[in-house]
């Protein structure tokens, strides 16, 4: 320790240089008991308790004692810990960033969970250590601990990069195999656990138990990823089942588009199609075009879709069109062929979708389940490609899925190719997408970012749409849909009294995808694996064109969302050892499980009371009063004394007013005070004054008014006198 002083102002600069001898470094300087910072520093016990005495420890404690006498305890603490403050701040910032990554995880969620569990536990320990510096001064005087914090920062940085890589499709390319990924995970957790021990951080997990969870997570995530890569194809993987390197190129060029300074540089030349290759004899007239400005034309002996657009668009729009061509690597994304000039102006050229969009297909044609499963699988594959490019669709619904002549789905109308001011566009079209929109967006709007989990929720609603051949919440008002979804409710899943096995399996996938908690929604690769299993179980044997519906009859048979709250209690028998009837799940309400019975928040009960809905308000107050909530007791007393919804019971109401008053509820103190006042007579003067005074002191305006300017005077015996 170095000590310098100037006469007069006694400005001391302290430098603690703890002994580097190994025996001292191994001893416990993280006290196990609460320490009084104002205790005098002594050799054995007190603030810096050391297990055994030796020359080095004696010297350190003597230096600390002198420092304490010179500059005081608090200054000693500040000097000893100041070099750790910056490190702790960096660690907490890194942890915050890692926890934010959790919201974007798409792959290897269980592996990421194991890392997040460790990080959250160490965060608690470090925050506690920061709050209790005065009890752990010796901890901050150890050079090896200081070095350990630098190592911890480096490790957290590597964990952040690791989670980023393994949770996104393009990042997984960095690992040569799934086994290499699992090996890296085991190495990084081992390093983390060893460093936590060396830093003597008190964590909440057991290394042994956490190791078991690590192994289970690695096996589960590894198997899911392997299965996905083996079966997905469709441009996501190469011929040897490796992740397509095209994702890196697309992500880099997409970032260039997002950078306003680079927008002026076109990332790739847009293909220009020669008009002489058009077959004018096969050009369809405007009466046969597909809605709006989409026209069917023949180009080099195949049909294409031509869409007129404003050629005066911004450079950003041109770059986005160039990006669209890179997405042609996917078999399940509508192919953008390029630009061309027609007499009426410039057009965008896409592959022609013979059956139009998926909504038009299911409205006009009967689709059997093998066809529906293959369509759902193809859409999932297309969305997986988009997410691999870090592109969110934002409007997943059957109307934005095009169907070609082979009934193959092509994802269309996603972010690229839309106006630059997409947020404004999205708000203006909210009424069109609300049927598929995730509950977190309905609840929080722009306060929460649109994420891959929002797309997955919309995909779940699309699967429901495929299952029942109708848009969700048909004939519902905009506000009714929002209120319904925000309340955690969903569409009815009712296949009738005897659903098939494929319908029951498909319903499980729907329910998984539209979970209210975004973190519970499976990744697209998990949904793909489940849909793939169904296509193998119920294969499409050979392609046959779909059969047209009898439109009038079939539309009448479609399930109506207006019947959502009607419970179907039909029972079915499933083959097995148990012959007891198993209740069929026909609605999102799973009535046969021992579900939690929710109660409204007190605030919601008050709102119901103000709007005149006394029955649910009473049930809310009654439930919370049973739980001991003081404000609920006040409201229960209010209902009892006024006879709202229930029979009036002034005696019982007064009892609850007093209970709430004794717990400092000001309104209840006022009401109880005046319950003692009948026909100009106060039954208990002391109690009346006591509770009225308490109400006034606790801010009740009515009570304060009675005391203001002497308008309330202490009563004579049995009476109150008011001016």
UniProtKB/TrEMBL annotation:
<dbReference type="InterPro" id="IPR011009">
    <property type="entry name" value="Kinase-like_dom_sf"/>
</dbReference>
<feature type="domain" description="Protein kinase">
    <location>
        <begin position="280"/>
        <end position="535"/>
    </location>
</feature>
<dbReference type="InterPro" id="IPR054000">
    <property type="entry name" value="MLKL_N"/>
</dbReference>
<keyword id="KW-0418">Kinase</keyword>
<dbReference type="InterPro" id="IPR036537">
    <property type="entry name" value="Adaptor_Cbl_N_dom_sf"/>
</dbReference>
<keyword id="KW-0808">Transferase</keyword>
<dbReference type="InterPro" id="IPR051681">
    <property type="entry name" value="Ser/Thr_Kinases-Pseudokinases"/>
</dbReference>
<dbReference type="InterPro" id="IPR011990">
    <property type="entry name" value="TPR-like_helical_dom_sf"/>
</dbReference>
<protein>
    <submittedName>
        <fullName>Kinase-like protein</fullName>
    </submittedName>
</protein>
<dbReference type="InterPro" id="IPR000719">
    <property type="entry name" value="Prot_kinase_dom"/>
</dbReference>
<dbReference type="InterPro" id="IPR001245">
    <property type="entry name" value="Ser-Thr/Tyr_kinase_cat_dom"/>
</dbReference>
<dbReference type="GO" id="GO:0005524">
    <property type="term" value="F:ATP binding"/>
</dbReference>
<dbReference type="GO" id="GO:0007166">
    <property type="term" value="P:cell surface receptor signaling pathway"/>
</dbReference>
<dbReference type="GO" id="GO:0004674">
    <property type="term" value="F:protein serine/threonine kinase activity"/>
</dbReference>
<dbReference type="InterPro" id="IPR059179">
    <property type="entry name" value="MLKL-like_MCAfunc"/>
</dbReference>
<feature type="region of interest" description="Disordered">
    <location>
        <begin position="545"/>
        <end position="578"/>
    </location>
</feature>
<dbReference type="Pfam" id="PF07714">
    <property type="entry name" value="PK_Tyr_Ser-Thr"/>
</dbReference>
<feature type="compositionally biased region" description="Low complexity">
    <location>
        <begin position="563"/>
        <end position="575"/>
    </location>
</feature>
<dbReference type="Pfam" id="PF22215">
    <property type="entry name" value="MLKL_N"/>
</dbReference>
